[in-house]
Specification:
This is Acetylhydrolase. Residues 1-30 form the signal peptide. Keywords: Hydrolase, Lipid degradation, Lipid metabolism, Signal. The chain has 375 residues and is α/β, with parallel strands linked by helices. It has a single domain, classed as Rossmann fold. The chain is 26% helix and 21% strand. It is built from 8 helices and 14 strands. Strands 1, 2, 3, 4, 5, 6, 7, 10, 11, 12, 13 and 14 form a 12-stranded mixed beta sheet that branches. A hairpin with a 7-residue loop joins strand 1 (46-54) and strand 2. Residues 1-29 have low confidence and may be disordered.
Length: 375
């Protein structure tokens, strides 16, 4: 399953960086000087900081992570790029495309102090195969603008990433790991978040951290979401780590060895291509194993990338690149449904959006049972 998805994810991740044409055709397109991302809708400005983390359980394994949070006094802090220049060039060059496309800028202000007000719910994100921790920045900065601390991580051997010493890594051509590898990385990330909440700086270089960050982490209100392989990893983390109270899948295949098992906490599936009856999908097998609050919401007409940044970035590169969903509507879906899910399950706020169809989102269909046609 990992091999089958690798090429698909490499292409969709490249598209997220602004590639809208077939491989080899990028230089024929007139790319804009800089792509843009939509602004988050929450009341708070957003801060961000990157950290270089180790894994005590697997010596020598290191990874980059980013913390996103509601901030104060952001005026003197520059905004962070969507993806650093060096890994972005590698991402584009790996697909035979123009490596000089400029990264969009995010809403995150680097190193800004965290908004005070006590511990806040924490959400962690796991990316797809051959991806990177920035691929759902629209969702990440939306949650942060509404008061969440969101932590994203680059999975070693499966991401385009850059370390503080200038080393740039790309996905391994031989073995980029399984959803279980992603799950182990996230459990390590949760340990490092706990270190930070306990007053210890988990950054391997002990670089200064934003003021108030440690006090903003509520370890009793942790959620997780992931895209594709990272969505499968979300289920696996919930199978093995009760620190995660609620999980959200963005079009996850839900296939691994061993497979995801029963989950007794809230879990929501947002599907596009990996529907219960789709080939190479384990969603139908997972559905009856969801013993807590559960929802399955299908986006009619969406494709695998409709729940990540490519839905917005792709159309900026080529007008003839037909998006399966209107880009603005795809962004509204990304901003509304994850926020409603975590507000309900980490903040205890009832959300009508999760109770059934909503007139603002006619393409979102609630699936309550699985009936697949006979083979």
């Amino acid at each position: 399953m990992t091999t089958a998805l690798t090429r698909r994810h490499l292409l969709t991740t490249a598209l997220a960086a602004g590639v809208a044409l077939p491989l080899g055709a990028g230089r024929a397109a007139a790319a804009p000087a800089r792509l843009t991302l939509p602004a988050p809708t929450g009341p708070h400005p957003v801060g961000t900081v990157s950290m270089h983390l180790g894994d005590r359980g697997r010596p020598g394994r290191e990874m980059m992570a980013s913390f996103w949070y509601p901030a104060r006094d952001v005026r003197r802090h520059p905004v962070a790029p969507w993806l650093a220049a060096a890994p972005l060039r590698e991402l584009l060059a790996a697909n035979g495309l123009d490596p000089d496309i400029a990264s969009p800028l995010t809403a995150g202000h680097e190193g800004a102090a965290v908004l005070t007000g006590g511990p806040r719910p924490v959400v962690v994100f796991s990316h797809g195969s051959n991806g990177h921790r920035s691929e759902t920045t629209i969702v990440v900065q939306e949650l942060a603008s509404h008061g969440y601390v969101v932590v994203t991580v680059d999975h070693p051997d499966d991401s385009f990433s850059e370390f503080p010493d200038g080393r740039v890594t790309v996905p391994s051509e031989d073995d980029n790991g399984t959803p279980w590898d992603h799950a182990h990385d996230v459990r390590n990330l949760l340990d490092r978040i706990a270190d930070l909440a306990g007053g210890r700086n988990p950054d391997l270089q002990r670089r200064p951290l934003p003021a108030n960050l440690a006090g903003a982490l509520d370890l009793h209100r942790i959620g997780m979401f992931g895209w594709s392989k990272g969505a499968t990893a979300t289920a696996l983390v919930m199978n093995t780590d009760r620190r995660v109270r609620a999980g959200l899948s963005f079009d996850g295949p839900m296939l691994s060895q061993p497979r995801p098992a029963a989950i007794d906490r809230p879990f929501m599936l947002m599907t596009a291509e990996f529907t219960p009856c789709a080939e190479e999908s384990g969603v139908a097998e997972l559905w009856p194993l969801l013993h807590g609050w559960r929802r399955q919401v299908h986006a009619e007409g969406a494709d695998h990338g409709s729940f990540c940044d490519q839905a917005w970035l792709l159309p900026q590169l080529a007008a003839r690149a037909a998006a399966p969903l209107d880009p603005a509507q795809a962004v509204r879906i990304q901003q509304a449904y994850p926020l409603a899910f975590f507000d309900r399950h980490l903040r205890g706020q009832r959300q009508r959006l999760l109770d059934g169809p909503h007139p603002d989102f006619p393409e979102m269909h609630f699936v309550s049972s699985v009936t697949c046609p006979s083979a």
